[in-house]
Amino acid sequence: MALPSMLGARAAITGVHAWVPPHVVTNQDLTQYIDTTDEWIYTRSGIRERRWLNDDALATSDMAVEAVRGLLNKKNLLPSDIDLLICCTATPDMLFPATANIITDKVGAVNAVGYDLSAACSGFLYGLSTAAAFVESGRFQRIVVVGADKMTSILNLEDRATAFLFGDGAGAVLVEPNTEGLGIMDFLLKSDGSGRQYLYQKAGGSLNPASHRSVDAREHYVHQEGKTVFKFAVTGMADVAAEIMEKNGLTADDIAWLVPHQANKRIIDATRDRAGLPESKVMVNIDRYGNTTNATIPLCLWEWEKQLHPGDNLILAAFGGGFTWGSIWLKWAYESNN
Q1: Residue-wise DSSP of 1-40
Q2: Average pLDDT per consecutive 10 residues, the chain (338 residues; last block may be shorter)
Q3: Alpha-carbon distance 93 to 6, whole Å?
Q4: In the annotation, is 88 catalytic?
Q5: Candidates 87, 88, 261, 264; catalytic one
Q6: Looking at domain 185-331, which CATH architecture does it have?
Q7: Residues 264, 291, 294, 313: which is the catalytic one?
Q8: Any idea which fold 10-184 has?
Q9: Is 291 assigned a catalytic role?
Q10: Quick check: is 121 catalytic?
């Protein structure tokens, strides 16, 4: 069953915008760092190129600011109209203050409460679910959920297993009340901390603070045991997408679009197969952006925005380190005029 709405309103996405760096890095470009080929990368991941923020003076917040400003412009809103900004990221500008606070300051959102949410690649779904709860409770009216990551800041270009996977980018959505039966209908969030050893950043936290030893050992980069993560991701993301459909009596014919986290084309295909959907109903842009972690789903919504119509059923699904995973069923709430 769908979640009950509070105060007669559901939480709906009413706008989306995204931003990626202009610098394109192809698979061929990566051959200067690692022993690889375009064919090897593409057959294993579905990636042809990605965007890198190749300016050391810029950080995750700078990409997020571009996405938020674009969103506000499209919606004809002032920064002061935002009540809450949630930044979902695995690569904050710094451990504290929250990157959300930095974003609100840079855009001039003087009335917004801001905080970060960390759930690896599932973070955007966790943030969107949190925003829905706030809206449906009546606590906030306008919430911006940002998914942004500068993954190149923790990318080891000498690690053949991970160097080709990630890109940089940011996406933002506006979440507001809807009284027409549209918006976020249901969500499923899951986690399993026993998977933490397979995808993580070894150093930089309180367990293993930065030191000469940790830097020399390259422990401040993303570490992934690819085969294990792939196995769990295929099962977790595919199952949770199917579960939310089964829970709500939805069939493949009811679904307009599957919006999967863009981690690996084979994981996307497994999720599509489990949901019984044709390729024509799946948003895929991993070939051009790689895995932008928290930004992948809003990047898809941004690119497909003009193809979305009020009442369209969307299934969002993601899997990330932690392990965390989840899915959201939503009914699209607006027709894009931009």
Answers
A1: -PPPPBTTBEEEEEEEEEE--S-EEEHHHHTTTSS--HHH
A2: 60 98 97 93 96 96 98 98 98 97 98 96 97 96 98 92 94 97 97 86 90 92 82 88 96 97 94 94 98 98 98 96 95 90
A3: 35
A4: no
A5: 261
A6: 3-Layer(aba) Sandwich (3.40)
A7: 291
A8: Peroxisomal Thiolase; Chain A, domain 1 (3.40.47)
A9: yes
A10: yes
